[in-house]
Design brief:
Layout: E1 3-4, E2 10-13, E3 32-39, E4 42-47, E5 54-58, E6 62-65, E7 67-70, E8 77-80, H1 84-105, H2 109-131, H3 136-156, E9 164-165, E10 168-169, H4 177-195, E11 215-224, E12 232-241, E13 246-247, E14 252-256, E15 272-278, H5 280-284, E16 287-297, E17 313-323, H6 324-332, E18 338-343, E19 345-347, H7 356-362, E20 368-369, E21 376-385, H8 388-394, H9 396-400, E22 404-406, E23 422-432, E24 444-451, E25 473-475, E26 486-493, H10 497-500, E27 504-512, E28 520-529, E29 542-549, H11 560-563, H12 569-574, E30 586-600, H13 607-613, H14 622-628, H15 634-639, H16 641-654, H17 656-673, H18 683-693, H19 699-712, H20 721-728, H21 730-748, H22 753-772, H23 779-791, H24 796-802, H25 805-818, H26 827-842, H27 849-868, H28 873-889, H29 896-928, H30 938-954, H31 957-965, H32 970-990, H33 998-1022, H34 1030-1044, H35 1056-1066, H36 1069-1084, H37 1096-1103, H38 1108-1114, H39 1116-1129, H40 1133-1148, H41 1154-1168, H42 1174-1199, H43 1204-1221, H44 1225-1241, H45 1245-1258, E31 1265-1266, E32 1275-1276, H46 1277-1294, H47 1298-1314, H48 1318-1337, ...
Parallel strand pairs: 15-22, 35-36
Antiparallel strand pairs: 1-3, 2-3, 2-6, 3-4, 4-5, 7-8, 9-10, 11-15, 11-21, 12-13, 12-14, 12-16, 16-17, 17-19, 18-21, 19-20, 23-26, 23-30, 24-25, 24-27, 27-28, 28-29, 29-30, 31-32, 33-34, 33-36, 34-39, 36-37, 37-38, 38-39, 40-41
Helix pairs in contact: 1-2, 1-3, 2-3, 3-4, 4-30, 13-14, 14-17, 16-17, 17-20, 19-21, 19-22, 20-23, 21-24, 22-25, 23-26, 25-27, 26-28, 27-29, 28-30, 29-30, 29-32, 32-33, 32-34, 33-34, 33-36, 34-36, 34-37, 36-38, 37-38, 37-40, 39-40, 40-42, 41-42, 42-43, 43-44, 44-45, 45-46, 46-47, 47-48, 53-54, ...
Length: about 2050
């Protein structure tokens, strides 16, 4: 049964509980729980951390704590009953724990470790505090340490400052705001103050005099281990001041036996002393603890013969020292003793014994000997603080051990009354004695006795040191063989006072013989009395005493015999007539010196003082004695203070008339002496005297009379020093007056009361008289008034003993009121006056409400005057804060309301005015940053703010009501409201209180919101209807908005615990203010229109505060605004415009969230539903909501670490929204520039240009002036448009999009021409011309395009469930792009199929990316079909201005035909249309429309054959129209590809598929298409015939076998087609010849290892032959899968062995003649597994590959040949390569990307026609096939792709802009070594690698030189028009038509003669004579293969059968090492 608990309410978890039971509450160790119910060993309750979750937990897991329960029942609250500091430490540690871990995460390691240390200390200190075993002082100390650490941690963690008082957290409700402010100020500095409190701080007025804290050293001797003495020893410890060179403490004596233990067994563990009464000054001195060791035994330690053993002498042994300054730091914080070891040093020369400690301290090492071991005296030390009584209470253990209290020589800082002491300290200084006829010097011992007047030896009056009892006789230590001994031994003589007079000291001198008898022989004596005849004591000085001779027989029984003799020189002068016949003769040559120091409270050495104390003995000298008192030293006066005061008052009583004034003056002198800082701490002595010892009952009359007499004379006298002294002594004079009157009353039962009152009244009249005098003319009078004002507040307490509070208050009011007003006195008096008022307010008198009622008006009057004139603000603020503090503490009293009322009337307005002035000053100071006047500091602002807040907080409803009712006019009220609102606004804006003063800030907010609630009705009542005042209302609204937006009120950012605390105390003040604001808005009525649109922005800011309630209150105001504007203007355009403007800036500042968007829409749509203007309203709210979506997306993108793409996408989205949906031109333009900047940052120059173009298009060519905007100056529209055009042209140029820049150049040219600005016109025309040159000359990469689908709700709004096409970066391939996208969206999942996703994916909470490559469909088909347009121009139109893209997916419809797959292979063709064409303002645009068509197998075949025919036609046409002597590689390869493919499949496959009777009968509708296909095949045979004829014409003799093979294959092809196409029955004679069997070629490649195959490019002959020969059909694309860009795995044996062979792309295309229209999808991951693995192997290479598209003619690349035909060895070398080992090509001038092979998106299907045979032939004929790569110039000796590569006129080509390289940053070139075999005799050095379709060709193994040397290079790298094809200077004639019949005889003839216009080569074709190549990225190298080299740099290679060929080397010499390494790598590969 669960029962509610009674006692068990609060506990701490002592073992973690995992809550395994039903309803179990999971608890962590250390959590606190509140217990509600219990049942059989279980509790039910909640964790304080999670108060909403209730559960059960075992009772034995909980440690119960006592707690206070309030509000018992369901909603009870429990507060633990423990020290508030402990509670705070617990809460703080829990808060720090989370932050501490964050420090580690944020790498703030230093703070992490410091905080860990502090947290451990806090836990330890908390444990000590909880233990309950500490004394009160220890508790206080622990709390101090705790709070210091708490504050330190809070400050370093950026947490709030905690205001404290006496280590407890203060409750802000219990104290005034001013006090709270001061506590905040002091909290930070309290740490330093608490550790270094100066002992002698002068107390502020009102404090009791604080006594300085004395320090005490506790010393304990643990052991003396340096035990080589073997005799008894005395160890003396004392404190020694090095600077003064004197001993400052008595000695502490420890007597040890010869074993080192204490001589007295009871003293074991009790050898300890307490050196007392050290002041703070002493602690700062250079003190040492000195230990003297005196042994007691033989004369010489090691000599047994010296002296008999029974005689013992005191002999010096050793000394040890310890610096107190060194040990204080280590012992000051400790609560226990700490041990130290003191080495004992021995003295080298006994004569120097008296200064051995000084020598050791000074380290004069020659004068002492260090001990042989480190052992010595082991002592422990402890430093104690406090009065002796306190020490006795706190450390009883010390006193239980019988500690020896060792006093200071001299007095402590304070001699309290009753502290009686009478000690004479005597130091044996030195002696000077005769030898007495002996050959050796004496061993002298001094014996001393203290004798009374009657000759009796005083017992126990000699103390060698504390710790041992006093003795009656003293024996000095003996110095061996010294006639002038120096002892320096201090002895204390504690002689009783009554025996002091008449006593004397006698010193006897003996020689200690070391002979056998060893007797001590007396040879002289000296003496000195202790008191002089005049009654003064022996002075503190050195006294040189006379030595009188005597011997053992002399008797001292009759001391009178020698007492009559002079003891010293002074004495001798006093009694010159001494008879010489006395027994004792003075030894004139001998002397003896002692020094004395008296520490006595009863004996004095001052004659004048003695005379005063014994004044009755000299009655006639009293006047003189009183006058001489001023000359007595302060030390003597304070020592005998009580006696002197008694004497003075006795004299006064004796004869008042005669001595009254003199006694008064003496009294004033003594009182003022105690004001001196040196004697300040004697004031308690004076106080004690007055309270307990003073007995002058009649003194008051005379004192009042004298005081009045002085004051009345102040107007007349010029010298007023004595008057000022009397004024300064006022406090104590009044104490004496009052105490005297009390004594008199007591004695006489209150007689003469009226006279006393009257005399005091008169005295006050005199005081007022003094103060009312005009002191401006007299400086001395000023000082008198100042002295009086300073002392005046101190007398109130005394008066209160005799008068009622009201009476005293009246006295004070009259006095303060008598002061002239601030205008009539100087500034210094002003300050004194205010200080006096301040001390009045601080006095006890002011704490009584009766007196406050009287005094407050006069105090406020003075303050008001000062504030009005802005004078002495700091003092005024201090007075005010004191007043508020008193009023707050007594706020329960009845009269307080009245006082507050008084203050409101007097101060409120002037306070507001003062604050406004101070704030404006401090703001201007901040602007000037000059020297700040103290009144403008933050301190003074804080003081006055706290005063104002204190006052407002004290005001109640009635106060506010009176205040508002008291305004005479509305203008006054208006001014007051404006001032108040302005001050409040400044409070929030200026951050008067630092950020971590959270308590202060919250309290301020609370007071402001309360005040505003009081003031708003007045605003509504007075300024709404007819008297509407915009200024006041506007001020009110601005204040409210600022208030709600305050950072300190944004509770969402604070910890839950802190939030709960704030909400419990104040509630959410934002909500309170929002309600207030809303109701005030509603009260405005028709005046609301004045605040539209002005308040829209501020109100919007308020609604964006993340507090749902505030939003709910405030959002409907917008509906109200729309409604009012609609009523007034018929629309709400202003609201709309302003809202959109402000929304943008506020959201970008980080305000607002998704919830706000929904709430905004919901609340407003609900309101608008009922309106007549519903439609426009709804559309407006919808568009604002949509804007918010975009703005939030934009903000999230911008503030996160998002990629450029996301940011750009977001910005485009937002920009378009501004333009299209809400038509905000200015915002639109702003975002245009933001977007442009992003593009420039990402180096998207073309996109940046298009973006700026949007702004440019908004401008007209007009002279309209435009204002300054963004970074544009104010200028005309024409100027701005011109500047923009120029900038756009510049960006198009940087982005190499010259075609886009040219129209702008023309537009500018028209403008310049119309203005006749020919200079600019010339410049722009030249620019345009340069761009045309650049188009023709500069290499440009064609980008890839990728389609990306973003599916799932997790994507940003602007991407969600949309598809885009993106323009890839240079060299970016599909996998790289996919990788990039996945890194941009790390949460996204890549979809592995190209199918459109279903709804489950579209609506899921995830991110799916679907990516594949697409092929652009150019709009400008005409230019691409024009034969004469160079390819460089066409290249641009193929990939720019593209809006449509295509993606083909092959699939089988119906059953798949095993024999011939083409029958059922269909193409699914998807066409995507974008919203804008690429490139544009972004690199990607959304897909607007998608169309899906299916292409039948037959249609596909027609397209493929058609494309191939076009390609062949173009190539042959180029050969026909140019004089291309020799190199016909391209033609050879192209023909080989088509003919060979046809033989092995090719067209034959189509024949089988579509000319079959079955097909024709089943597809009757395809008859026309079949005919078309036949015609195309027919046409292809004709074209091939012409091609072979041209080939035969130019073929090199060595290549005849190849030609013959082609002719044979052509015949086979023709015959295979003969039945279908009878037109081919006649064959051109050029095609006849014998066929070369293919098998021999294959065999020659068969022995290659798989490793070498890995290195073969996919377009190398080996790969191609394997693929083509063994393919089941030469139409190899039937192996392609749906994915498109996949690996083709043929069934050839080569394909199986070559693991990493470069993979061909599968294509949906179905013809051996590659289709230009069918591009693959490039879906990477959907290949079959084996293909995928192989693909992955080449991933890195693929990522860098340049792109490629199918182009009608770009596959045929002419190769470079020599001017005078081919080299004789040329064909032989090629032919060897056909049958020799195949090598990969490599070129030093190519980047990795250029050497690599692209995974081209174009369809490679059966590219056997050109793309597979091409490299094969390339290997044979040494031609180069270039992929589309940036242009690279080649060193001489390499073969360029130009037919006219060696024509020198090419060097004159105009310069062009450099092409963009692979990387954005420049790379340094790696030039080849002039000696390295880089021309590639080993075939590893082709000039450009790669075929047109991104294959790589192999260069032949032979090298080709040429006989004539090329001319030197003068042009720059990319400067040559790299696609010049003409061979003659003046080629003008257009192309000839291609003819298909060889019967036309001029076909081949014209090849030599017909000129032709320059025609574009495929991308990448490069002229021979170009400058150094651009920089290349480094590439890997293998070890170099050894080559042989002859002197001329011609390279020999064994592979070439030692036939070396010449080659011109013209490359720079630098970089030889890299080049050698590179060549070695290439060579190594070739060797494989």
């Amino acid at each position: 049964m669960w029962t509610p608990t009674e006692e068990e309410k609060y506990g701490v978890v002592i073992c973690s509980f995992r809550g395994p039971v039903p309803q179990g509450l999971v608890l962590e160790l250390g959590e606190t729980v509140q217990i509600l119910e219990k049942c059989e060993g279980w509790y039910r309750g909640v964790s304080i951390k999670k108060p909403n979750v209730k559960g059960i937990f075992p009772a034995n897991y909980i440690h119960l704590k006592k707690a206070v329960v309030s509000n018992r029942g369901q909603y009870e609250t429990v507060v633990p009953l423990e020290d508030s500091v402990i509670t705070e430490v617990t809460a703080t540690l829990q808060e720090w724990a989370a932050l501490w871990k964050q420090l580690y995460v944020k790498h703030k390691i230093d703070l992490f470790y410091k905080l860990r240390h502090v947290m451990n200390e806090l836990i330890d200190l908390r444990r000590q505090l909880l233990s309950g075993h500490l004394t009160q002082d220890q508790v206080r100390e622990v709390k101090r340490h705790l709070t210091v650490r708490l504050d330190w941690g809070n400050e370093h963690l950026g947490l709030d400052l905690v205001p404290r008082k006496d280590f407890e957290v203060v409750d802000s409700d219990q104290i005034s705001v001013s006090d709270l402010y001061k506590m905040h100020l002091s909290s930070r500095h309290s740490v330093q103050q608490s550790t270094s409190q100066v002992d002698t701080i002068r107390p502020r007025h009102g404090e009791a005099c604080r006594l300085p804290v004395p320090h005490h050293f506790f010393l304990s001797l643990k052991s003396f281990t340096y035990n080589t003495i073997g005799e008894d020893a005395d160890v003396f410890f004392f404190l020694y001041d090095v600077r003064e060179g004197k001993q400052i403490s008595e000695r502490f004596l420890v007597r040890l036996n010869k074993n080192g233990g204490p001589k007295n067994p009871e003293k074991i563990d009790r050898m300890c002393a307490l050196f007392t009464d050290l002041s703070s000054k002493d602690m700062k001195k250079d003190l040492y603890i000195v230990a003297h060791v005196i042994r007691i035994g033989r004369m010489l330690l090691n000599d047994t013969r010296k002296g008999p053993s029974h005689l013992c002498y005191r002999r010096p042994y050793g000394c040890a020292v310890l610096s107190v300054m060194d040990v204080i730091p280590s012992i000051s914080e400790l609560k226990e003793e700490k041990d130290f070891v003191l080495k004992v040093y021995t003295c080298n020369n006994e004569n120097e014994w008296y200064q051995i400690h000084e020598n050791i301290i000074r380290k004069s090492s020659t004068k002492y000997t260090a001990p042989s071991s480190n052992y010595g005296l082991i002592i422990s030390l402890q430093l104690l603080r406090g009065e002796m009584e306190q020490i006795r209470r706190e450390y009883p253990m010390i006193f239980n051990r019988g500690v020896a209290v060792t006093r200071k020589i001299g007095f402590p800082d304070v001699i309290m009354p009753g502290d009686i002491r009478n000690d004479l300290y005597l130091t044996l200084e030195k002696g000077d004695f005769e030898r007495g006829g002996k050959s050796v010097q004496k061993n002298i011992e001094v014996t001393m006795y203290v004798l009374y007047a009657d000759g009796e030896i005083l017992k126990e009056c000699i103390s060698l040191g504390s710790g041992e009892p006093s003795r009656s006789v003293y024996h000095s230590f003996v110095l061996y063989h010294s006639n002038s001994p120096r002892w320096g031994e201090v002895i204390k003589l504690p002689i009783p006072i009554d025996r002091f007079r008449g006593s004397h000291l006698r010193f006897e001198f003996r020689h200690c013989s070391t002979k056998d008898k060893g007797e001590k022989k007396l040879f002289g004596f000296a003496f000195t009395p202790l008191m002089r005849d005049d009654g003064t004591t022996l002075s503190d000085d050195i006294h040189e005493l006379y030595v009188y001779k005597c011997d053992e027989n002399s008797t001292f029984n009759n001391h009178a015999l020698y007492l009559g003799l002079p003891c010293c020189k002074e004495d001798y002068n006093g009694c010159p007539n001494i008879p010489s016949s006395l027994i004792f003769q003075r030894s004139t040559k001998e002397s003896f010196s002692v020094s004395t120091q008296l520490s006595s409270t009863k004996l004095t050495q001052n004659v004048d003082l003695l005379a005063l104390l014994k004044w009755k003995a000299y009655p006639d000298r009293v006047m003189d004695i009183l006058g001489r008192l001023r000359h007595v030293s302060g030390e003597e006066i304070v020592k005998f203070l009580q006696d002197i005061l008694d004497t003075l008052f006795v004299i006064l009583d004796d004869n008042t008339e005669k001595y009254g004034l003199l006694v008064f003056q003496s009294l004033v002198f003594i009182i003022n002496l105690l004001r001196d800082s040196k004697y300040f701490h004697f004031r308690p002595v004076m106080d004690t005297y007055i309270q307990k010892h003073f007995a002058g009952a009649l003194a008051y009359k005379e004192l009042i009379r004298c005081l009045k007499w002085y004051m009345d004379r102040s107007a007349e006298l010029v010298r007023q020093d004595h008057i000022q002294e009397a004024m300064r002594a006022l406090e104590y004079l009044f104490k004496f007056i009052v105490q005297s009157r009390i004594l008199y009353s007591r004695a006489t039962c209150g007689m003469e009361e009226e006279q006393f009152r009257a005399s005091i009244q008169e005295l006050f009249q005199s005081i007022r008289f003094v103060l009312s005098l005009d002191s401006r003319s007299s400086e001395t009078l000023i000082f008198t008034q100042a002295a009086l004002l300073n002392s005046f507040p101190a007398i109130f307490d005394e008066l209160l003993q005799m008068f009622t509070v009201q009476e005293v208050a009246e006295f004070v009011r009259g006095t303060l009121g008598s002061m002239p007003s601030t205008v009539h006195i100087g500034q210094s008096m002003d300050v004194v006056k205010l200080q006096s008022i301040a001390r009045t307010v601080d006095s006890r008198l002011f704490s009584f409400s009766e007196s406050r009622r009287i005094l407050l008006p006069v105090v406020l009057h003075h303050i008001h005057l000062h504030l009005r004139q802005q004078k002495e603000l700091l003092i005024c603020s201090g007075i005010l804060s004191s007043i508020f503090s008193i009023i707050k503490t007594s706020s329960m009293e009845a009269g307080v309301l009245e006082e507050v009322e008084m203050m409101v009337e007097s101060l409120l307005d002037v306070l507001l005015q003062t604050l406004l002035t101070i704030m404006s000053k401090s703001q201007s100071q901040e602007a000037v940053r000059g020297q700040r006047c103290p009144q403008c500091t933050a301190e003074i602002t804080g003081e006055y703010v706290s005063c104002l807040l204190s006052l407002l907080r004290q005001m109640s409803d009635t106060h506010f009501q009176h205040l508002l009712d008291n305004f005479q006019s509305k203008d006054e009220l208006k001014e007051f409201l404006l001032k108040s609102f302005c001050v409040f606004r400044n409070l929030m804006k200026m951050n008067v209180f630092p950020r971590d003063w959270m308590v202060m800030r919250l309290l301020t907010s609370n007071i402001i919101v309360t005040t505003v609630q009081y003031l708003s009705p007045a605003l509504h009542k007075n300024f709404t209807e007819t008297d509407f005042d915009f200024k006041v209302w506007n001020s009110y609204f601005s204040l409210s908005v600022l208030f709600i937006n305050q950072p300190s009120l944004q509770l969402e950012s604070v910890t839950p615990a802190k939030r709960k605390k704030i909400l419990d105390k104040y509630g959410d003040m934002r909500v309170m203010m929002a309600y207030e604001l809303f109701s005030m808005w509603q009260n405005l009525g028709e005046h609301k229109i004045h605040f539209i649109p002005g308040m829209i922005g501020p109100f919007l800011g308020v609604t964006l505060v993340p507090q749902p309630e505030v939003r709910n209150i405030m959002i409907p105001i917008f509906h109200d605004m729309m409604d009012w504007e609609q009523r007034k203007n018929g629309s709400f355009k202003q609201v709309e415009a302003e809202l959109i403007d402000k929304l943008d800036s506020l959201v970008s500042e980080g305000k607002g969230d998704e919830n706000y968007r929904e709430l905004f829409s919901l609340l407003l749509l609900e309101k608008i539903e009922q309106e007549t203007w519903r439609e426009t309203g709804v559309s407006f709210v919808t568009s604002v909501t949509r804007l918010m979506e975009r703005l939030l997306d934009y903000r999230d993108c911008m503030k996160g670490d998002e990629t450029e793409n996301k940011k750009i996408g977001c910005t485009v989205n937002l920009m378009n929204f501004y333009k299209s949906e809400i038509n905000k031109e200015e915002m639109y333009i702003r975002y245009i520039h933001k977007l442009c900047d992003m593009h420039l940052q990402a180096e998207n120059y073309t996109e940046a240009a298009f973006t700026l173009l949007l702004y440019c298009e908004l401008l007209q060519w007009e002279e309209r002036p435009l204002r300054e905007f963004l970074h544009y100056p104010s200028q005309t529209e024409w100027q701005r448009k011109e500047g923009l055009c120029r900038k756009i042209i510049h960006y198009f140029n940087k982005g190499k999009s010259w075609e886009f820049g040219i129209p702008l150049c023309r537009e500018l040219a028209i403008q310049y021409e119309s203005l006749y600005d020919y200079q600019s016109l010339s410049w722009i025309r030249k620019m345009e011309a340069t761009y045309y040159d650049n188009i023709m000359e500069q290499q440009r990469l064609e980008p890839e395009f990728f389609r990306v689908g973003f599916y799932g709700r997790k994507f940003p709004f602007f991407l969600r469930n949309k598809e885009y096409v993106c323009r890839g970066h240079d060299y970016e391939r599909l996998e790289a792009f996919q990788q990039r996208m996945l890194s941009e969206f790390p949460q996204a999942i890549a979809m592995q199929h190209p199918n459109h996703p279903d709804d489950s994916i579209l609506q899921c909470d995830a991110q799916y990316l679907q990516i594949y490559a697409v092929t652009p469909i150019p709009d400008n088909i005409e230019v691409l079909q024009m034969d004469r347009v160079p390819d460089r121009i066409k290249s641009f139109y193929r990939v720019n201005n593209i809006r449509k893209f295509r993606y083909d997916r092959p699939f089988h419809k119906g059953p798949k035909d095993k024999e011939n797959e083409f029958k059922s292979l269909w193409i699914e063709r998807t066409t995507l249309t974008l919203t804008h064409s690429l490139p544009g303002i972004s690199r990607w645009f959304e897909v607007e429309r998608r169309e899906l068509v299916e292409v039948s197998p037959l249609e596909n075949a027609i397209q493929v054959v058609e494309n191939k025919n076009q390609e062949l036609r173009t190539l042959i046409s180029q050969y026909q129209h140019k004089q291309m002597h020799g190199n016909i590689n391209l033609l050879s390869m192209c023909l080989n590809g088509v003919i060979d493919a046809a033989v092995n499949g090719g067209i034959a496959r189509y024949q089988e598929a579509f000319f079959d009777r079955d097909y024709i009968t089943t597809h009757p509708g395809d008859a026309e298409k079949i005919t078309q296909l036949k015609e195309l095949m027919h046409e292809q045979v004709h074209i091939l015939g012409v091609g072979l004829a041209v080939h035969e014409k130019f073929v090199h003799p060595e290549m005849r076998p190849l030609h013959k093979k082609l002719v044979d294959q052509f015949q086979m092809m023709r015959s295979s087609l003969y039945h279908e196409l009878p037109a081919l029955d006649k064959l051109s004679p050029a095609c006849s010849g014998t066929s070369t069997p293919r098998s021999s070629m294959l065999v020659s490649h068969s022995p290659m290892s798989p490793e070498s195959i890995k290195l073969v490019h996919r377009h190398s002959p080996l790969n191609m032959l394997g693929t083509v020969r063994h393919s089941s059909s030469s139409l190899s694309s039937h192996t392609s899968s749906e994915a498109g860009n996949l690996v083709i795995l043929t069934d050839s044996s080569v394909g199986e062995t070559a693991e990493d062979m470069y993979h061909m792309q599968a294509s949906p295309s179905t013809s051996s003649l590659s289709s230009t229209h069918s591009a693959p999808s490039q879906m990477i991951n959907s290949a079959p597994p084996s293909a995928r693995d192989k693909y992955r192997h080449n991933r890195e290479l693929m990522m860098l590959l340049p792109t490629h598209r199918d182009r009608p003619s770009s596959a045929m690349y002419p190769a470079a040949i020599m001017e005078n035909g081919q080299h004789p060895n040329f064909q032989r070398a090629l032919f060897q390569q056909v049958t020799g080992p195949c090598k990969p090509c490599s070129d030093p001038n190519l980047s990795v990307a250029e050497k690599a092979v692209p995974a081209a998106p174009s369809s490679w299907s059966l590219d056997s026609g050109t793309r597979e045979a091409l490299p094969f032939l390339s290997a044979h004929v040494g031609s180069i096939l270039a992929p589309p790569v940036p242009p690279r110039s080649l060193p001489h000796g390499h073969y360029s792709l130009h037919f006219d590569a060696f024509h020198h006129h090419l060097n004159d080509a105009p310069p062009a802009l450099p092409a963009r390289t692979l990387r954005k940053s420049p790379l340094h070139p790696i030039p080849a070594s002039p000696t390295s075999p880089q021309s590639g005799l080993d075939g590893s050095n082709s000039t450009l690698s790669g075929s047109a379709s991104s294959g790589v060709s192999s260069l032949s193994e032979s090298n080709f030189g040429h006989s004539s040397e090329p001319p030197p290079r003068t042009d720059t790298m990319d400067s040559v028009p790299s696609q010049t094809w003409n061979t003659d200077e003046d080629l003008e004639t257009p192309y000839l038509p291609v003819r298909y019949s060889l019967s036309e005889p001029d076909v081949l003839e014209t090849l030599k003669s017909q000129p032709c216009r320059s025609h574009s080569a495929p991308t990448g074709v490069i002229p021979q004579d170009a400058m150094d190549p651009p920089a290349l990225p480094p590439k890997p190298y293998h070890s170099r293969h050894p080559n042989m080299e002859n002197e001329e740099g011609i390279i020999l290679e064994e592979d070439e059968k030692h036939r070396a060929l010449h080659r011109k080397i013209s490359q720079p010499i630098s970089g030889a090492k890299e080049e050698q390494a590179r060549v070695a790598w290439e060579h190594g590969i070739s060797e494989q």
